[in-house]
Specification:
Keywords: Oxidoreductase. This is NADP-dependent oxidoreductase. Its EC number is 1.-.-.-. By secondary structure, the protein is an alpha/beta fold. It has 2 domains: 154 residues, Medium-chain alcohol dehydrogenases, catalytic domain (Quinone Oxidoreductase, Chain A, domain 1, Alpha-Beta Complex); 131 residues, NAD(P)-binding Rossmann-like Domain (Rossmann fold). It contains 8 helices and 15 strands. Strands 3, 4, 5, 6, 7, 14 and 15 form a 7-stranded mixed sheet that branches. It has a 6-stranded parallel sheet with strand order 10-9-8-11-12-13. Strands 1-2 form a two-stranded antiparallel sheet. Strand 14, helix 8 and strand 15 form a beta-alpha-beta unit. Helix 2 packs across helix 3 and helix 2 packs across helix 7. The chain is globular. The two termini are 13 Å apart. Bound molecules: NADP nicotinamide-adenine-dinucleotide phosphate. The site of NADP nicotinamide-adenine-dinucleotide phosphate has 29 residues, from helix 1, helix 2, helix 3 and strand 9.
């Protein structure tokens, strides 16, 4: 099959347009013709080899942690999906495969694509959408009237986070750059903070839940912005902080909750219901052809993306 593949870790020039063997289908998997994928910050980190100590890719490898497409074959043990279904999934950093013509997706990773989404666009949803959904329903359940602070609110995770927190009844403060304040407002944010002119760490407000989508803001500083009993979710922290977080959680009612999103079709199905009901809309900066993956990865590495970069497997 055709794929954008890498034969070694490295810069943007490691992407190579080529042919690889199609995936071998296991009993609990579906073979999916891919239409859409995305670029996440983690895709760039995997490409550069930064996650080598956690994930050893078998090279040549096809990257892409998100995939959307149409089922063309099902394994013997697959029960919930059939040939012709439109599905999407977060594959996780160990599996990847979204930048190829076909992918084998375990049944438990997948959900049906909502009818109101274009199949290529749908490829931007799984990883970031599930992160925001899991954050506010599992790790720090958001309830009506809670004050929620989202830092990095107009990026991939943040655009879902604003909408999900609002849907759950929260009062949302969004921290983003000045050019994107209107977007954050349209997505439902009640209070807006431009991070270039105001340091959120100096606020006198206190929050029930904080979601920090930005690297380099120490968990201790955010803890000061929590109400007693509040939770601060860390998705972009350093693993070196983990022992300190554990220790700090022992001695305070204000908890810091680091997590890494799981590959879970049930979570994605819950998010899909919000998308079907138009409680959550997609914010897509641009969709690139898979042949322009180096440019798409470069954009994400540079920053300044509004919502997400999609990849059309065309
Ligand atoms: N643990 C997990 O499971 C998990 C899952 C998904 C993502 N992540 C990680 O979480 C982070 C966010 O992911 P993402 O996909 O949302 O990334 P993203 O699309 O790059 O969004 C990051 C956002 O942060 C904003 N930002 C940058 N500096 C800021 C500052 N000082 N204050 C406030 N906002 C600032 C950026 O705004 P401008 O571009 O306008 O400056 C951008 O909108 C990444 O590090 C990613 O690897 C972790």
């Amino acid at each position: 099959m055709k794929a954008m593949l890498i034969r070694k870790y490295g810069d943007l020039d490691v992407f190579e347009w080529g042919e690889v063997d199609p995936p071998i289908l296991k009993e609990d998997e579906m073979l999916v013709k891919v239409y859409g994928s995305s670029v996440n910050p983690v895709d760039a980190s995997i490409r550069k080899g930064y996650l080598k100590s956690f994930v050893r890719l078998k090279l040549p490898a096809v990257l892409g942690v998100d995939a959307s497409g149409e089922v063309v074959k099902v394994g013997k043990a697959v029960r919930k999906f059939s040939v012709g279904d439109k599905v999407y999934a977060f594959m996780g950093i160990s599996n990847n495969g979204g930048y190829g013509e076909f992918i084998s997706i375990p049944e438990t990773f997948a959900a049906k694509v909502p009818d109101n989404l274009d199949l290529t666009e749908a490829g931007v949803v799984p990883g970031v959408g599930m992160t925001a959904y899991e954050a506010f329903t599992v790790h720090a359940p958001v309830r009506k009237g809670m004050k929620v602070l989202i830092i990095g609110a107009t990026g991939g995770v943040g655009t879902y986070a604003i909408q999900i927190a609002k849907h759950l009844g929260a009062e949302v403060t969004a921290v983003c750059s000045s050019e994107k304040i209107n977007l954050a407002r349209q997505l439902g944010a009640d209070q807006l903070v431009d991070y270039r002119s105001e340091n959120i760490l100096n606020t006198n407000e206190r929050y029930d839940v904080i979601l920090n989508c930005v690297r380099g803001i120490g968990f201790g500083k955010l803890k000061r912005l929590l109400k007693p009993g509040g939770k601060s979710i860390v998705i972009a922290g350093s693993p070196l902080e983990l022992p300190l977080i554990k220790l700090s959680n022992l001695f305070s009612s204000k908890k810091t909750v680091p997590f890494f999103v799981k590959t879970d079709g049930a979570v994605l199905e819950n998010l899909s219901q919000l998308i079907r009901a138009c409680h959550v809309k997609l914010v897509i900066d641009r969709i690139y052809s898979w042949k322009d993956l180096p440019e798409a990865h470069a954009r994400v590495e540079k920053g300044g993306i509004t919502g997400k970069i999609g990849i059309a497997i065309d």
